[in-house]
Amino acid sequence: MKKVRAGIAGVVGRGQIYVDPMLECKDEVEITAICDIKEDGMKMYAEKIGGDVKCFTNYEEMVDSGLCDVVIIATPMPCHVPQSIYALERDINVVCEVAAAVTIDECRELYRAVKKSKAQYMMAENCVFYKEAMITKGMIEAGLLGEVHYAQSQYLHELQFMGGTNWRDHDLWAANYCTHNLGPMLSWLNNERIVKICCIGSGRHPEYNGVVGKREKANVMLCKTESGRLMEVRIDLDTKGPYQLPYEVDGDLGRVIIERVSPTSDTKVHLANEDFDQTRYAEEWKTLQYYEREFLPKSWVEATRKIPNTGHSRADYVMVVEIIRALAEGRKLPIDIDMAMNMTLPGILSKESFLNGGEWIDVPDLSKEV
Predict the structure, then answer these.
(1) What is the pTM of this model?
(2) 12 versus 266: which is more confidently predicted?
(3) Mind listing the domains of the chain with CATH numbers?
(4) How far apart are alpha carbons 180 and 247 in whole angstroms?
């Protein structure tokens, strides 16, 4: 097993979530480099990491240092594609935060770069690694829900509109920030390609100090897959209220509802088998804990024993462990470029649909363009 050398760009911000899991996996990974424009904060993480970790304020210098087998890109979204391509052209593995790109042209550039590179690319969508999402995936793969025909998710997260001065205000509108919704749902459908989408908003815009925001307060996107399955995504980044990320998936043999509003969120399962009362109008449900022993992955069992319930309910930790072990063992990373595009392209195209009254938009198949 090869010990992986990792560099983290944006370590003072989102990148910090990679530090503790990597230190926990010190037999498999070494953090050799960190990068951030906030030098004081970076020094704090350098002290925590210890060893011979090198600090950089320039991303390209970190990549060119020869210190990294993989770079973690946890910088703002507009930086994701150019920084990913820079590393891929040097055959250095890339793990990039969401979303993969902000335009269709960027998606094409990134896809071509991945296909030309000897290195691997992964988009780090942590919601795929939520405990509930992974148990549900195991149940679906075992056939407990039968053939899945519908899934839906809502991302309700007040981001406090900044008045047009932040990149989030320019890039996050319509259903562009949809990877947290689509990630688990696509993992349940074996990443079946989304072929067309439509998106419409509520007609109400957030306002901050007299400045009206571009996005609308509630947005719904519908996605159709190659076989005709339907996925529904709701995005609301402005309505005041607690953070919520519920999911539902329906098959011809049952339904799973994940009401994620806290680390102790409720879940509901009803299946067409002898474990449930099938009398008409009977409301018998079980929780996902009922299926945990059979379908919870080994990495999750280990995480529960090792760390407290932190980092998006341990999902960040499990994701990082899965990444490091795949690289150390020479295996394929969990979320490849095709799945990354399947999560990213619909959100970008939602803006076009949104501006055209919710018309259906075809999603390009980038694999046929290379």
Answers:
(1) 0.94
(2) 12
(3) 4-125 (3.40.50.720), 128-298+346-353 (3.30.360.10)
(4) 10
